[in-house]
Amino acid sequence: MVPKLTIYVPDDLAAEVRAAGLNVSQVAQVALRAELGRRPSIRPTEVPDVVARLRTTRDKEGRQTELRWHDLGARWAKEEASVAELGDMDEMGFAWVSWRVPEDHSIRRFLAAEENWDPDFRADVERSEAIVAFIEGAVDVWQQVWPLLDAEV
Is the separation of the CB atoms in 103 and 137 below 8 Å? Predict the structure, then answer.
């Protein structure tokens, strides 16, 4: 059995529809399907679960990105950085908004090789969680090795 619906339309529209000989049922079905196609593909009751799931994936992806950049910073410190570069980075701390990277800084070559960055990237690097993690990784290495620089290892 096909359910029946009542549709209310203004008198002038009803007269035009009759005069045109339109199949109101068929036109209404097409219009209703089109409207349903424009509706969101998610029911309001599903929204909280989807938001919670996406937050979890975002947080996990963010942690993975931070760990990767921390490891990159530590590797740069161990393999490429100079004493002056690491000392400057340690002194810079984390209370900054952008970091002016000198043109001859080894981080330019390192990130060009490791992350396909343009070695001529803008001198001012904006603060981001990835860059902060990179600096933390480098500073972690520096703080372990600098007290030993003048001692025999």
Answer: no
